[in-house]
Queue: 2 jobs
Job 1
Amino acid sequence: MKSMYQLNQIPSSRQIEKYIRRIVFGKNMFCPECRSRKVVRYEARYRCLRCRRKFSLLSHTWLGNMKLHYEKFWMLLWSWTCAIPIKQTAALTRLSEHTVRHWFGVFRAHLPRETHVLERIVQLDEAYGKGWSLVMAKQPDSRKVAYVILPERSVDRQDAVKFLEQYVKPGSKLHTDGAMIYRGIERWWPVVHGTDIHAKWEFSKTSEIEGTFGNMRTFIRRMYHHVTAEKMPDYLREFAVRFSSPEMFKNPKYYLQKSLMLAPTC
Ligand SMILES: [Zn+2]
């Protein structure tokens, strides 16, 4: 867990501006409209000498409408990368909970799309909530997870098979609990199936995926307090990226590097 010590190390506006310029434009400024490098700066903005467009560091990124001061923005993003709960972040940044919730949603929406196909050994299980069910799998001893959220309150074999077709490599060992939907699953998708019978206190084959479900529930409860069926896909995606790519959350800089860069010059 990161300490509050780091909060005192929020860089200065000038430093943040420098980071952002480097991330968005690389070493040399260019016009985001016509890519010309003939660009002049005036006050906080830039102007292209070729196409005459004006732009700012963020105007052509998804942070184009950001009106917060850089330091406050950084503190907000820092809080999100550290998974500081909404309420605490609001107190810390002196922004309203509504604003914090909005920005956390924006950060979440710009996480990279990840898809993992699992192989070798795959642990698969389901979880249920109000108005949603979740099928999730994990490849043990790796950070690879795959999942699908269903709007129904139950999962049937067809859902499980569809999930396997998409996310589990043929020939893998599939470990599940003894639920009916997995009976004879190897006839529907080529896996070697093994089960734990929970009634007999067997848990070892599915312990990692059960641990992952536990982490997910703790994360959502701690950070967002509760989850609606509507928000579930968003929160789950955030959880999954945090789980698979923890390096993105070490520092606001890493997250911005992955999410903010303008497309490279063709
Ligand atoms: Zn231009």
Job 2
Amino acid sequence: MARGIAIKKKFNEPEEVMVSALLHDIGKVAMKAKFSQEYGETLWMSEKEGLLIKDAEERMFSTNHAEAGGWLCQKWNFPVNLIEPIAYHHRPTLSKNALFQTEVVHVADNLVRGRGFGFPGDRLVPAVNPEVWEKLSLSQSDLRDLLSDMEDAIQEATDLVT
Ligand SMILES: [Fe+2]
């Protein structure tokens, strides 16, 4: 087991969480593909007004990429353990059927954003939901291990494309 991260022990199906983490922002891809001009304006609005991309999306579309991604994944008949982490990764406490998976994707998303990896559509780092943070009860050691594993994974991903 890599670095003994306690959180890994809680998963029965870690692959599902990994897939939902990989796909959590698929709604952005769908919105950009379907509404290219409007999505470009949304990115601009986010930059100009210092908004999180999800908040700029809500102004432009009256919905956001998480809801759009959840809707899309329902249409594709994904299992609920994938749908809810995608649909609720910005509002994890709304998950009814995959709460732990959704909480993990929420925290992972914010850690990756904090690390500055990739471009999520804005230059801000949203706060981790304090209720979720408390519930996961990650120790300093867990967090250090998670960040170290994340750095390794980012390096591996970077090596694949360079
Ligand atoms: Fe997101």
